[in-house]
């Protein structure tokens, strides 16, 4: 019984690894786009500050806040020819959605009622 479970786990791991792709390491001071975990949009940008662990990055946002993100939620922003390696902070635009935009996307009437009482 245990042997078949081990064989199954190994085959699942091999299948998952065959479809996986290795993402390149992001250097420090590289500008990146950050994906919103709720609506899957690339809505913010920031600068890589550090890589404390494999696949984990500390990102400094334009407002000075530092957040941690997994590598899969970061995409490098290509530098244009006329742009310096460290662009000014005021060139970064941040698109922020109101709370209601996320709340009503998949919630039913009960969810709307709860939001009205919270707001």
TrEMBL record:
It comes from the Eukaryota. Residues 1-12 have a biased composition (Polar residues). Residues 1-21 are annotated as: Disordered. This is Uncharacterized protein. It comes from Petrolisthes cinctipes (Flat porcelain crab).
């Amino acid at each position: 019984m245990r042997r078949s479970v081990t064989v199954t786990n190994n085959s699942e791991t091999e299948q998952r690894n065959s479809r996986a792709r290795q993402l390149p390491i992001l250097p420090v001071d590289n500008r990146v786009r950050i994906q919103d975990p709720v609506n899957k949009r690339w809505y913010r940008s920031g600068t890589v500050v550090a890589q404390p662990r494999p696949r984990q990055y500390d990102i400094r946002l334009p407002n000075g806040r530092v957040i941690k993100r997994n590598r899969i939620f970061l995409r490098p922003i290509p530098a244009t020819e006329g742009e310096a390696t460290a662009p000014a902070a005021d060139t970064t635009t941040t698109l922020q959605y109101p709370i209601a935009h996320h709340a009503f996307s998949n919630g039913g009437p009960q969810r709307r009622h709860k939001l009205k009482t919270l707001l």
